[in-house]
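hey so u asked for the seq, here:
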Amino acid sequence: MTDPDANPFKSSLSRTRKLFGRISESFVKQTPITDELWDDLEEALLSADVGPSTTTWLIEHLRKRAVDEQMRNTSQVQAALREELTRLLGKPAGLRFSTSSPLTVILVIGVNGSGKTTSIAKMAYRLTQEGHRVILAAADTFRAAAIDQLKVWGERVGVPVISQNPGSDPGAVVYDAIQAAGTRGCDVLLVDTAGRLHTKYNLMEELKKINKVITKLLPDGPQELIMVIDATTGQNALLQARKFAEDIGLTGVIITKLDSTAKGGFAFAVADDLGVPIKFIGTGEKVENLTPFNPQDFVAALLAQD
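ran it, structure tokens below
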């Protein structure tokens, strides 16, 4: 496990960690296990937006372990909590790349304001640092500002952006981007799509249309369909993500704005409810502040003492 002082999630989870302060103190003191401990832990989990169903499961499972393993003090509960939280988040999952095509396509979705376009730029920067040749598709054609925003980010990170006029067919933009990727020798295409709500049927259909354009040109694409979720919106965002997962399938999520909220426990609800891996966590405003998700580091940061 990473040294807590070097843990990239520690500062992002500082507000959430305060909710666990009382629990952490009990753990350190190695006091006997009491009903108050369970009550405090449940309150902390719910306050951190872990979610009712996930919280209930965790508490019941930990109580059973405490009995089965004959735990005597809170430090043993802490160890068990760390194990269960880490297990809940699953294994680290990096981006999936095409094994049969020279081009990997990553489709990124999310509602307006979630940090979607910024996250795409951060991914592009990270991928170029890793040696990939990246190209962006401005398929959010419903808003002229979205196209301009992606172009600005493209210039900042040194990545070309393929776009058309506002109101153009998003599928046509993606088609042009795939062709341009081949011409320019790019091996990763990141597609920015329109910010949308799951209740807008026409926009969901538009997304499916984009997907069909990709699969027609690249039968094994897209390799990733990632949703960007704003942690500050908490449980409400799960309704949107769940609808996307049901209608078009998701391969992963990016969670943004953890440093702006005390709802860092939302990550556990996402992993438990959607059943897809968390790919990255936004840990700040700079282009470098997109960190590959590591469950052990995340849990360690959450339970760390300041």
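The radius of gyration is 21 Å. The chain has a mean pLDDT of 88.
lmk if thats what u needed
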